[in-house]
């Protein structure tokens, strides 16, 4: 099962890689809806008519886009009215693999710190190099196991 999770993560990484160029692309100042509507030469009334809404709705929609309060359902309707396709994607800041590795490292560090504290009290503390090696092994073990509580710690 854990191998399957890694494979799924790797396949998703490949798909998400296509969206990397969009990660740092800011939306137009007045929002996507207004920018596309303007580029099409469509006024607010015309968009409202295409949506089957009252003409005041366009301004409301464009304001809601700016505040992030539009629903996906509404955005899909607007995209259709503008002859566009609504694309929704979460783009990882680094990679899914790196995100899992960072979490595994935090978990491993906490576990090692607890064990090191106990060993220190018993005068059995390990050296820096030994700690680094153990930490590295623990990270790999956690990455391979992907324990169900990985994100609880």
Put the structure in a nutshell:
Helix content is 65%, strand content 0%. The chain has 7 helices and no strands. The two termini are 21 Å apart.
Q: Can you give a write-up of this model?
A:
By secondary structure, this protein is mainly alpha-helical. The two termini are 21 Å apart. α3 packs across α4 and α6 crosses α7 (128-145). Helices cover 65% and strands 0% of the residues. The protein has seven helices and no strands.
Query: Total helix count?
Result: 7
Strand content: under 5%
Cα distance spanning the termini: 21 Å
Arithmetic mean pLDDT: 89
**Which regions contain 5 or more consecutive residues with pLDDT less than 50?**
none
> In angstroms, what is the radius of gyration?
25 Å
Derived structural class: mainly alpha
Order of helices and strands: HHHHHHH
- Sheet bearing the most strands, described? none
